[in-house]
Design a protein that fits this description.
The chain is mainly α. The chain is built from 7 helices and 4 strands; from the N terminus they run ββαβααααααβ. A two-stranded antiparallel ribbon has the order 1-3. Strands 2-4 form a two-stranded parallel ribbon.
């Protein structure tokens, strides 16, 4: 866990109940596992208890906005232009980003709490799976670069812990 992220508790540590729709019939096994993990994280996020400092959500929203601006720039446009082309008012965009930030932060907090409660530590296999998803074929290079920067290494550690917690939570989830 990072120093700047608070710790959270969950209202329940019972397995999440998730519903897989008919669309799963067309998914490959890896896609299905990813879908199960996503649904599980969403369900666990609903269990986060306590009051969080709004600055945590604002910081996450700023990161989302910065990423959207960078993507627009890479596409040869601006975020404002993209919003205009898609008829998205600025206030609506801000609400969408705020909601996305809240979901993202709460999912992270939920997975941190799950890992702490069940004393989950990422395995080397989990770390390599995560790196493979982040940089297919470049796992070792990404790990080497991250190991050169303490902040990146800490972020990778947090991501690996959450990945492992998410795998565990999804493996015990009740699927209907």
């Amino acid at each position: 866990m990072t120093e700047s992220m608070p710790t959270a508790q969950l209202s329940s540590y019972e397995p999440a109940q998730i519903h897989l729709g008919a669309e799963v019939q067309k998914m490959s096994a890896p896609e299905l596992e990813g879908y199960k993990r996503a649904l599980t994280a969403i369900e666990l996020a609903k269990r986060v208890t306590g009051v969080m400092d709004p600055a945590i959500y604002e910081q996450a929203a700023m990161g989302i906005r910065s990423q959207a601006e960078a993507q627009a720039k890479a596409a040869g446009t601006t975020l404002m232009q993209t919003m205009r082309e898609n008829n998205i008012p600025s206030a609506q965009y801000d609400r969408m980003v705020s909601m996305q930030a809240m979901d993202m932060v709460n999912q992270g907090l939920a997975l941190d709490a799950w890992a702490m409660h069940f004393q989950i530590e990422p395995t080397e296999e989990d770390v390599m799976e995560l790196l493979s998803q982040m940089a297919p074929g470049g796992e070792r290079d990404l790990l080497e670069r991250a190991s050169q920067d303490p902040a990146q290494l800490q972020a990778l550690g947090t991501a690996a812990l959450r990945y492992s917690a998410n795998k565990h939570a999804a493996s015990v989830a009740v699927v209907d």
